Amino acid sequence: MYKHLVLWKLKDSVDGMTKEELAVEVKRRLNTLPGIIPEVREYEVGINIGAYGASFFDVGLISSFEDEEAFKRYCVYPEHDAVVAYIQSVTDAEEIVDYLV
Q1: DSSP one-letter string for 5-16
Q2: pLDDT per residue over 10-53, tens digit each?
Q3: Which domain holds residue 55?
């Protein structure tokens, strides 16, 4: 199985939306993708609730695909591209780790 892990650090505000509101919107948009893209096996989006000062990122995604080819197909859906474009417009930093299990 191919796993795709992404972490995002959001901007403090964009177009009058606070970081907390942006996190909710990022999560909402990401959660639309599994219903559209059949290659998705597992999909979990979370907003960071850690309040202990050691966390840098605000939103995380863990997704699973049958194999790398399925992941690559997921990446070229126009709906995926639209969500990625939105997230890029509201983030300061992103980290990605892909691995096999």
Answers
A1: EEEEEEPSEETT
A2: 999 999 999 999 999 999 999 999 999 999 999 999 999 987 87
A3: 2-100
- Among 49, 28, 50, 37, smallest CA distance to 4 is for 37
d(C-alpha 58, C-alpha 4), whole Å: 17
Provide the 8-state DSSP code for 31. T
86 φψ region: left (φ > 0), alpha (ψ -120 to 50), beta (else): alpha
Look at residue 40 and give its three-state secondary structure. Answer: strand
All residues at 6 or more sequence positions from 34 whose CB lies less than 8 Å from its CB, including other chains: 40, 43
* Residue 35 in tokens: 């219903």
CATH number of residue 48's parent domain:
3.30.70.100
Q: At residue 11, what are phi and psi to the nearest 5 degrees? A: -70, 160
